[in-house]
Amino acid sequence: MDNTLIIYNTLTRRKERFEPLHAPHVGMYVCGPTVYGDAHLGHARPAITFDLLFRYLKHLGYKVRYVRNITDVGHLEHDADDGEDKIAKKARLEQLEPMEVAQYYINRYHKAMEELNVLPPSIEPHASGHIIEQIELVKEILDNGYAYESKGSVYFDVAKYNKDHHYGKLSGRNLDDVLNTTRELDGQDEKHNPADFALWKCAQPEHIMRWPSPWSNGFPGWHCECTAMGRKYLGNHFDIHGGGMDLVFPHHECEIAQSVASQGDDMVKYWMHNNMITINGTKMGKSLGNFITLDEFFNGTHKLLAQAYTPMTIRFFILQAHYRSTVDFSNEALQAAEKGLQRLTEALANIEKITPADKTTVEVADLRSKCYDAMNDDLNSPIVISNLFDAAKAINNIVAGNATITAEDLAELKDTMRTFMFDILGLKENVQSGNEGNNKAYAGAIDLLLELRKQAKANKDWATADKIRNDLTALGFQIKDTKDGVEWKL
To answer: For labeling, which of 52, 298, 386, 484 is most exposed (least CB within 10 Å)?
Structure first.
């Protein structure tokens, strides 16, 4: 079996064989959250996409250094109300330190990622902790002639860079396209060219987050942090840089320009981008009223939600689509994901009920190779899941007495199902809740009620036995009496 991983490289716009620069070591950098609000579904998709890649690379035997940054410095003026940085504004209104605001949302982001079973990165650097590295990056770009100082700020000279290199090669744009789509913003009079982007901004008197630099007391431009921190922890050349496709331009385009302008060549070999999540065909946004946080999904508290959805339902929903395709949220789609995940977990549980036979009469021998083929084809998780559904159907046929399987094939089937469901797709074994202690207590309470029902039946107290069954059914449980006892599921 050929376990060669093929991935789509946004830079070259084609699928390529993955060949690490320093095998078996792999360097991977993914743009993490900007911490001025609660994590939402849009945060979940890149986290789960690159968690899948992280898990699979490790499964293949690579030693992965996964760096995922935290953006916690004031660079968001262009995207904030009334031109004020969002973290600084919240800090001012709530009389908090900016880092206090940032830490609050970092903690909530980590909690949401833990619920989604997203593995923590190897290193999680904060932009605010790497101001020196960003200043050094700006100095290098200035020394190489691709930036200029203006009124205490430093800007990247896009036109000059474009004469020597190609600004726009990641996004497929040319400089004329960029100039025609550049918005008029405050501070444009400081620039030589409207497309020039800030490497360092001189802070206005009211700006809370500021640091000293050779040019002014100010703060680094947004694009600097990933270039500086990626180079610090992964070196001048590393394998993979990832993020959402909304970061292709301008953020990642500017990162490429910064790396070439500072060190003379590209820093990253493979660029990978996940597509976006829409809600009923419309892009998520607070102004549109369709912005749903992960907490709201888990608790079912948003007006657009018909019910609460467990973190594993959210994860499974995202994995059911290829990472480069758009995913459209709807209650119907999440409810279907919930039922699909339940089918797989029930099938895996049913393996324990199978008694091996002398002959295998179902097609399960090539399940593992099919799943590997799908993963090696640019992380095609939907095909992996489809193969697992086929296996679940075979398991249910065996349990129903319509087919048989040998002990050897049964062990291989169980191991393959567990490997791909838990180790690679990252699903949790108990999907009722993200809290294992609550899961055990929850299952124990149901088992206790069913034991009381069993005792009532033994005492011929049919009224009590029927009441327990009927009440559990009304709550959404399915109770099934079998020759081996009682089975239940939600």
So the answer is: 484
CATH number of 278-424: 1.10.730
CATH code for residues 6-274: 3.40.50.620
**Cβ contact 276:283 at 8 Å:** yes
Q: What does pTM read for this prediction?
A: 0.86
478 φ, ψ to 5°? -105, 120
Instruction: Show me where the domains of the chain are located.
Output: 6-274, 278-424, 437-489
pLDDT in tens, 431-459: 443 344 455 676 778 888 888 898 888 89
d(CA 365, CA 356): 15
Please tell me the distance from the alpha carbon of residue 293 to that of residue 433, in angstroms, as a whole number: 17
Q: Is the per-residue pLDDT at 54 higher than 50?
A: yes
49-61: string of b/e by CB count within 10 Å (b at 16+)? bbbbbbbbbbebe
Distance CA 480, CA 469 (A): 10
Give CA torsion, residues 43, 47, 49, 53, to 10 deg. Answer: 160
Q: Which residues pair with 479 in a beta bridge?
A: 488
